[in-house]
Amino acid sequence: MRSLHDIREEYEFLEGDERYRLLIELGRDLEEMPAPLKTDATLVRGCSASVWIYPTQNGDQLHFLADSNAAITKGIVALVLSAVQDRPAKEVAEMDITAALDPFDLKNQLSSNRTQGIPNMIALIRETASRIAAD
């Protein structure tokens, strides 16, 4: 997975439809999430498209598997995950993920339908990280 910094550098040089294509590309590059993990328990509520996020851990490092049934939404999921993937749970729990995504100005780049679930994705990731960090 590409770093958020690398994605941002590329994103800043693009405009309009090119940014959509980048998001779609990011979604295609997501690690495949096995179908049995796409359950009601891993479904993120409040998204206009179906989004599933499944946390795993290796020691104190968090790793997320994720998928969506919509290409651009899947790219947004990949963008969110690029901020937190394979980082220590304590760091993710304390991270301001929203601020990390601010340079992408998603609210002005995408329709409200496409961005409405982002706070729920972030909340799920932070709650998971907080729970794991506390153990």
Offer a few descriptive terms.
135 residues; mainly alpha; Sufe protein. Chain: A; 2 strands; globular
Structure description:
- This protein has a two-stranded antiparallel ribbon.
- Helix content is 54%, strand content 12%.
- The chain has helices at 4-13, 16-28, 71-84, 89-94, 97-101, 106-109, 112-115, 118-134; strands at 51-58, 61-68.
- The protein has a single domain (4-134), classed as Sufe protein. Chain: A (Alpha-Beta Complex), CATH 3.90.1010.
- A hairpin with a 2-residue loop joins strand 1 and strand 2.
- The chain starts with a helix and ends with a helix.
- By secondary structure, it is mainly α.
- The chain contains 8 helices and 2 strands.
- It is globular, with a radius of gyration of 14 Å.
Q: Summed up, what is this model?
A:
This protein has about 140 residues and is mainly alpha-helical. It contains eight helices and two strands; from the N terminus they run ααββαααααα.
Report the biggest beta sheet as strand number plus sense, adding barrel if it closes.
2 strands, antiparallel
Total helix count?
8
Helix content: 40-55%
- State the domain count: 1
What CATH calls the topology is: Sufe protein. Chain: A
Mean pLDDT: 91
CATH class: Alpha Beta
SS content category: mainly alpha
Give the ordered list of helices and strands: HHEEHHHHHH
Output the radius of gyration: 14 Å
Intertermini distance? 27 Å
Question: How many strand elements?
Answer: 2
Strand content: 5-15%
Shape: globular
Strand order of the largest sheet: 1-2
| Low-confidence parts | none
Under the CATH scheme, the architecture is Alpha-Beta Complex
